[in-house]
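Sorry to interrupt, but I need a hand with the structure work. Could you write out one complete protein record for me, on any chain you like? Just paste the record in under my message, thanks.

. . .
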Amino acid sequence: MLIYILSRNENLYSTKRLYEEVLNKGWEVRVIDYLKCTIEIMKNELVVNYEGEVLKVPDAIIPRIGASRTFFGAAIVRHFEMQDVFSTTGNLALTRSRDKLRSLQVLSKNGVDLPRTVFASNKSNAKDVIALSGGTPLVLKILEGTQGVGVVLVDSKKAAKSVLDAFYGMDVNLLVQEYIEEANGSDIRVFIVGGEVVAAMRRQGAEGDFRSNLHQGGNASICKLNRKEKTTALAAARAMGLGVCGVDMIISKRGPLVMEVNSSPGLEGIEKSTNINVAQKIIDYIQNSVNPTTTDNQKRKKLKKDSIGA
């Protein structure tokens, strides 16, 4: 089989690991910088050009699309999908997952437990937003932020109003969420491949930081999920229509709450903290999807059906 890994940097840990595992299968693999792709659209003909070369239609693609390049990256993924190429992450699910507000709306519609969240325009009354969020302390999240950047914890109504007024004054779109104190700066990343939980790690934020992101100095360790945590993570992935994803949850008094579903989760943290070969699981998923058994084919059809909609 021929596999393309859509990545801007062949030296990134995740890209290298996926490349290695494809080679271990004895397949052909190329890393394609999707920003260097040009698509041609003609009657009954869809072509992808790469630095002057017409790309051969692969058997599958593995999108590793950066958050800041979602629109163009999703367009390239869609072009390959219209050539009947299997993608570990569909273009619709990719764009849906990158919109924090849309993601929460989809998850809520599908009965997934979430923190209380409020979204309002910059003309809204800050006091009303604070009250609807359940009062302080609360968490403010810029919609365009990633890896913990643009996330602020405010612990008083006065501070919350000042920060809200400042953000609204700059015409910044943000979410206001209840603060789950009992989480104590930790969360759980659940890695899902093909509708199955393949690994999970608990991330703990750096001392004095309520954010658990590894990019912000946190640390990770292997985590064993209980039934409710596993069920919640799988429901979130299914609702988003993602075959490969990382579901981030915090544990509250009322159970696991989904914070985000990452459509391009990194492999370094999860593999090193769990000693599980997650990259191999993804390549196995491709093999089962391109050459499926009856059972695998049924799963794939269900995932595709679930991905249609919002």
